[in-house]
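User: Run a structure prediction on this.
Assistant: Running it now.
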Amino acid sequence: MVVARLLLATLPAWGPVQALAAATTWMADNGNGTYTNPLFHDEFSDPDIIRVGDWFYMTGTTMHAVPGLPVLRSRDLVNWQFLVYAMPDFPAGPEYRLEQGLDVYGQGIWAPSLRYHDGVFHIFANINGRGLQVLRATNPAGPWTRTAMDRNLHDLSVLFDDDGRVWAVFDYNEVRLVELEPDLSGVVQGSERVIIPAGNGMGEGHHFYKVDGRYYIISANYAPVGRMQAARAERLDGPWETVAISASETSGTQRGWWEDGVGQRTPVPTGATAFSMHKPGPNEMGAVPLHQGGIVQLPNGDWWGFSMMDLKSVGRTTFLSPVTWHQGWPYFGIAGNLGRSPRTWFKPDVGVATGPHATYVRSDDFSGPRLAAVWQWNHEPVPGKWSLADKPGSLRLHALPARDFLWARNTLTQRVIGPESVATAVLDPSGMRPGDIAGLGLLNMPAAWLGVVRGADGAVLRWYAQHGDRRVEVSLPPGRLHLRASGDYEDDLARFSYSLDGEHYQAIGEPVRLPYQLKTFQGTRYALFAFSTTGGEGGHADFEDFRVDEPLADRSRNIPFGQVVSLSNLGDGSVARAHPLGVLQPVAAGSAEATAVGARFRVHDRGRGRVALEALDGSGFLTVVGIGLSADVRLLPESVDSLFVWQDLLRGKCMLLSLKTGRYLGIVPGSGEPYAADRPGAHPDRRDGSVLRWTVAP
């Protein structure tokens, strides 16, 4: 042990031991020099990121939600600050306003390209039926101006080239190139052509770059399984080469399932009766690997990647990945494990100290002059039919005519936040009239809600689930109500409850299974709503408070620093123990070996999320030798090869990333082979042998 201590004293850049920061809302920054994906545990889809000077900027898809195109900024790519919505409203049209039986669910504004050129920030994004929108601002916090081209360029990305010309790549499967007019008023006639034909692996969601004089396009392909592709060429017209730069990386994201009435688990439905139910496709039913993103360079020359990860009913989230250039290609991942991305890794080296910071304040008591930035309307709201001033300290929603919840205008929403969150709304229904319905909903398809239904003879509380047209009603005394939706978004399950006093809650209805589906093309949203079923305008509902609580937000105790733990493998249930021959062996749970001192390990904090595991039988530390093959995980005196980065999978699950191999500790389940440190990463079911369950040993 003396030798080990002397060696540890010479290790570079270990830094002081730090505790993970406590939090009440999800923050990717762990407070110890590392971050854990996703950047936000709520939906932020189709991200595009640029750097201007020392600051990074990001925007993403907002579909039918209003206002749209959020602009965020960051110094470190991990902690983001909301600046403004670049698109406060949609152009005129009944489909954007839920009028005349028309809607833009799953449409609207999508796949933006964010660029900076000649002192001006640009966002290029399509609006369905209205062409390509070009938004400009000299200050990213606005104001932003908007013009439109009479042309739709699917999933475009724009490049301001060195010679002053402006190019856009777009389309699906084949990559098309078109030149834009210098003033961005339209496309240059006759300039459009195919530069990468179909069959070369490219897909959609392009990100277009020029790096060291060479052109690069990064896109996502979903056939037959999602992955990220890159293409490169010396000239725009090629020849273009293509490779996959990220594949199979799901970070253990598990598939979503629907629980039917007889206890069977089947794929989630993805539509709703009012919006044409359809059979789910493969990308709708389960985990999709990292996809649709791009790259950005730090001031020090390092490169980082960003991409989407579909987290089931939460929606499409943003993941941050280190990029390793290899043979001229920007692979997502670290040396030794290219194409796979850590869930937890060291923060980008931006040369300044940055600490954990939440992007949004999610709770709102409606006492301010405007809505919190996290709120968005479902389609365009009706001016004058909602207010923060009519009853100070409350959000007033007027009950406008609608056939049901999904057609209710002036529905205010915010994204659910995973892995668990609880939303509570306080409703004063005294201004409601007969035929009015108001409450708290989960905007999805199928949808669910809990609300007050006002009839001619009084009011009832109704729980409603669109799937199966299920409902439960209870009578109500007069007065305000506390409505609650509690979601476990790893299990895609939500429950409703209510309270008359804000302290004692009564469950109502059944658990609601939540899908991710391609009709709204969004994850689940909390929704405050009011509408009238009479065919005319009704009264109003006053929401006095909205609070979001996140039971798993504080991850400061998710690494058992200093504690003695046992490790079992999710792949086969075996328990890890130090074998007398000096390797790490899987043994049967409940066996004498599994309960012996050799199956107990102390977790030592080595700073910046790094751990060393010491066997309590005195045989040494888990140490990786060679290239990490089976039996290359030995019990030896501690050294730099004993370092692992703890990958927190929540709820007592983790992976251990070896800093020697860039791969994970694991076994082939059921094989009986000793542990290796050569696993590339977890399968979606987490049962491939690289995911461990830890418990504090008695």
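The radius of gyration is 27 Å.
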